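TICKET: design request
STATUS: open
ATTACHED STRUCTURE:
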């Protein structure tokens, strides 16, 4: 493949914005540096020896959590077109700005994250469900803002395309990167649990401009957690981010959702992420409400992987976009599926 062809592929739109249907190509923070680290011999050496090590993220975090980094906030807001209202708040550091807490409203698919949209939709949806004979379904919400990929899990515990564009026939999805295959077993460092077979795998990729707090997707209980030590590779596509799911530092939570059964929620740390901060980690088990904040990431791009059982039906547009090679850009708290009645 020639250099010009590679450049065209990099510049081609690869994200669809759910609320507008527009195809977009987001500019990644430090995109050239990431490309150098993962596609050049010297870069890969530096990555292995320095940049993917936890101590590098720790040292970089010292600067971004100091008052010296306040000057980086305004250029960042301008570069990524974030709300100018953020500049009116007196953040003590770039790290504090990055992990800021915002209001999150549960709402219908594709709606803006506003109080008006969050409080008005539930009654309308309830009426529509009664009209269609779908009363009793429970909404399942996006746990984070970011870019989403959606896959099916077959009865063998393998990750597959949904088959919605292949005459109903599902195709095995080989997560192959440089000769290595990635699977649920590698993500979890354990065999695929029986309750996940026939379910869904969701990947939320959070870029630096995205909101880096995350919520519980429905009401339920947090039963157990497990921490897995690892590297801190980038989760960007140029860095073959599926590899990060099986090698990066991550935390796995077993959730039991009311009326929907058990799921696994996995936070994946990434390059420049200092920590994964989960609330009430020492109070297990505990009950939570839909939309309640589960935790947040320190500075850096991050990923959340959710593995769902077959009682949770995810909206078809998310599978269709994935089959087309597109990530779906959505916002935290918008409905992305239902639990079966």
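STATUS: resolved
RESOLUTION: sequence designed for all positions
ATTACHED SEQUENCE:
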């Amino acid at each position: 493949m020639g250099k010009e062809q590679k450049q065209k592929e990099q510049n081609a739109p690869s994200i669809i914005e759910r609320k507008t249907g527009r195809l977009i190509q987001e500019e990644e923070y430090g995109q050239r540096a990431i490309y150098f680290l993962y596609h050049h011999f010297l870069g890969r050496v530096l990555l292995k020896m320095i940049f993917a090590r936890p101590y590098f993220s720790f040292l970089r975090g010292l600067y971004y959590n100091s008052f010296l980094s306040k000057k980086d906030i305004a250029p960042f807001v301008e570069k990524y077109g974030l709300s100018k209202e953020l500049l009116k708040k007196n953040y003590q550091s770039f790290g504090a700005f990055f992990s800021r807490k915002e209001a999150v409203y549960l709402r219908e698919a594709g709606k803006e994250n506003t109080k008006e949209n969050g409080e008005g939709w539930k009654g309308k949806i309830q009426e529509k469900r009664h009209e269609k004979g779908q009363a009793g379904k429970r909404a399942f919400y996006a746990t984070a803002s970011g870019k989403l990929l959606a896959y099916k899990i077959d009865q063998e515990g393998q990750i597959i395309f949904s088959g919605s564009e292949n005459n109903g026939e599902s195709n095995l999805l080989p997560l192959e990167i440089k000769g290595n295959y990635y699977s649920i077993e590698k993500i979890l460092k354990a065999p695929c649990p029986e309750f996940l077979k026939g379910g869904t795998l969701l990947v939320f990729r959070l870029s630096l401009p995205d909101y880096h707090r995350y919520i519980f997707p429905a009401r339920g209980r947090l039963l157990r957690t497990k921490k897995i030590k690892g590297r801190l590779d980038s989760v960007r596509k140029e860095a073959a981010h599926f590899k990060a799911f099986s090698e990066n530092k991550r935390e796995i939570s077993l959730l039991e959702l009311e009326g929907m059964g058990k799921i696994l929620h996995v936070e994946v740390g990434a390059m420049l992420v200092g920590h994964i901060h989960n609330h009430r980690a020492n109070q297990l088990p505990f009950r939570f409400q839909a939309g309640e904040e589960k935790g947040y990431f320190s500075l850096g791009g991050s990923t959340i992987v959710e593995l769902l059982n077959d009682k949770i039906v995810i909206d078809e547009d998310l599978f269709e976009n994935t089959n087309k090679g597109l990530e779906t850009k959505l916002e935290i708290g918008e409905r992305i599926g239902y639990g079966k009645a």
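CLOSING REMARK: The first strand starts at residue 15 and ends at 17. Residues 18 and 110 are 6 Å apart (CA to CA).
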